[in-house]
Design a protein that fits this description.
alpha/beta; six-stranded parallel sheet; 6 strands; 11% strand
């Protein structure tokens, strides 16, 4: 293996914690007297966020339209109607809160420090400016030789095209790349289908899904150096 590639959200960065925290603050800002509905709203926001991002990945809507759509959908049952201008202001404020809450997992920096012998990159579904912004604010953008977003590649995981695009950027073959991510299907299995070694980062140890995956699985990025060393030994035997 010559190249180690990572997913971003919930692999390197605590995305789920940040989105929950930022959406709670958004709800409190808009509806300060309905605190009893906040937890319900957070779940609606997470669902709408995922569905509207998929529409963006699939080219059905622009990035701005996806943001407006998820905000209006999430607040619709609370009787809220927003103009485009108000929607955009709320989305900007939400984004600033979200990015401010993004933190690295504890095992990220130590892992990256031990990969000096490899090319290192990120492949992530997302909008270019926003994903780069998160890497900058978490202080790790300079650690990577390439960052490929779905917007930049014109394809989103689980499509093999986004993985192939990253290989072309790095001038490496897929068989020389390892890809690590927290989502079994979108990351590990999709990367394997694209010709890479797909590794499932199962931080939560989802035992119900273990039988679905018969290849490499780790529970922490601290296991990556040992995994690479084992792969090197195996290839030379």
């Amino acid at each position: 293996m010559k190249t180690v590639l990572f997913d971003l959200d919930d692999t390197l960065i605590r995305h789920n914690d940040a989105i929950r925290g930022a959406s709670k603050e958004l709800f409190t800002q808009v509806l300060p007297r309905r605190s009893q509905d906040c937890n319900e709203f957070v779940e609606k926001w997470i669902s709408a966020n995922a569905s509207w991002y998929r529409k963006f990945y699939d080219g059905q809507v622009s990035f701005q339209e996806s943001g407006r759509g998820k905000l209006r959908e999430s607040f619709s049952e609370y009787g809220c109607v927003f103009s485009d201008r108000t929607t955009d202001v709320l989305l900007l404020e939400y984004w600033e809160r979200y990015v401010g809450l993004c933190q690295l997992f504890d095992d990220v920096l130590e892992c990256l420090r031990k990969l000096n012998e490899y090319k290192v990159g990120v492949i992530t579904n997302g909008q270019e400016t926003q994903q780069i912004d998160k890497l900058k604010r978490c202080g790790i953008l300079s650690e990577f030789d390439v960052v490929v977003t779905s917007e930049r590649a014109g394809a989103a995981k689980p499509s093999a095209d986004i993985f192939i695009y990253a290989c072309e950027e790095l001038r490496e073959s897929a068989s020389d790349c390892i890809y690590i991510g927290d989502n079994l299907k979108l990351d590990a299995i999709a990367a394997r289908k694209a010709g890479m070694l797909g590794v499932w980062l199962d931080r939560a140890q989802k035992t119900s899904e273990i039988d679905l995956y018969d290849r490499e699985k780790i529970n922490s990025l601290s296991q990556v150096p040992a995994l690479l060393a084992n792969l090197t030994r195996t290839s030379t035997e």
